[in-house]
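User: Structure please.
Assistant: Input sequence and predicted structure:
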Amino acid sequence: MKNINADIGLIGLGVMGTSLALNMESNGFTVAVHNRTTPQIDNLVNNRSKNNKIIGFENLNEFVNSIKKPRKIMLMVVAGSVVDDYIQKLIPLLNQGDIIIDGGNSHYPDTSRRTEELESIGFKFVGAGVSGGEEGALKGPSIMPGGSRSAWPEVKNIFKKISAKVGDNEPCCEWIGEGGSGHFVKMVHNGIEYGDMQLICEAYQVMKDVLGMSNDEMHKTFKEWNEGELNSYLIEITADILKFKEKDGSYLVDNILDTAGQKGTGKWTASVALDLGSPLTLIGEAVFSRYLSSIKDERVEASKQLSGPSIYFTGDKAKALDDIHDALYASKIVSYAQGYTLLADAAKEFNWNLNYGAIALMWRGGCIIRSAFLTKIKDAYDNNSSLKNLLLDPFFKDKINQSQDGWRRIVSIAIANGVPVPAMTSSLSYFDGYRNDRLPANLLQAQRDYFGAHTYERVDGNKGEFFHTEWIQDNN
């Protein structure tokens, strides 16, 4: 049996697991790896390892015994029962104080449960959200760890070394908190990712269908935007996608079927927001837009039977592009405002002590939603750690005030031309609702009391004092 004394063990050599192992090796760590099937082990160890510091094991027991104590074993396997199965296989082979790390896209309640179960029998558990895709995992991802706090000093050095760096070599990794908080933050990250992508797609459709812009023109616009305040990974790759041509000279993006897939994390985010009563409208619309895209055959049939307005735009194209930019920027502010509100609601519900500025720092590099925008969010929470909503931060308040005229114009233009912009529209409605000191919920409460005796509070009464009216009897 090999006696290796590896710094860390990693199970699961898919795209992300393989890339993380190579990242760890390139940062000087010796990595023991195990996989359910052996070809992936052989390929990584014999073909891709650069420094011979990745050691493969087919036997799980030998794999475990090759790792320094307290052992740190990272699972990069499919979320769900596979994680639990591996935990059960590992438990008999481990010693008290050893650490199991789940780096997959697990649902946060599972992480909370696993943390509690493993701690109760003397082990430590870390649920670490890892974002950045294959490139991020290889060159430096954003890592969001939570779970057993006593495990953090043991894994901190490895995680911070392999994570992305921003600013003065600041790692995009910091301890999030207890239980499933790390995976919750990763889930919200993914929800915001859904929102960002949907907003960009809506901007693209307005450019294409209303303004009649070519792919080359749109490529140049997104490239220009990426050099300004909209600078982000998703804007950057959108510019690249729009210019990509196939061998026959056609643009690849035009040949891709318009049905969007998903892995469920956006749905989780929207669902949790409903459970916590958090108004996550934009991300919810982004999730529903993917569902709508998936019924392609039904949409094709509907397009033959349902009519809308003919697209007709005679305005200033350059001005309209500026308005799309402003609508995208303002909607992005709302997306993050809603995401951070959800984090605050979860922290209150689950008694987590979240550092919102540190979370923004973690998202500044390595991850899919990385952007210059996040520096301003970190500044907002550094300036006011008890900030209730990003819209109330002086910087974002000024920006959204500067952007809202264009935001309103482009939403109006899209609606008038029958082009769907659900994320931009819902974000604008949220903004208008949030800034409005009186909403029509008074009528709603009257309706509820009328048909169900649900009671209501009065503007001239005390907070928490409820009233009921016999609407038919009392009105006669």
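The beta strands are 8-11, 31-34, 54-57, 72-75, 99-102, 124-131, 142-147, 165-166, 170-171, 177-178.
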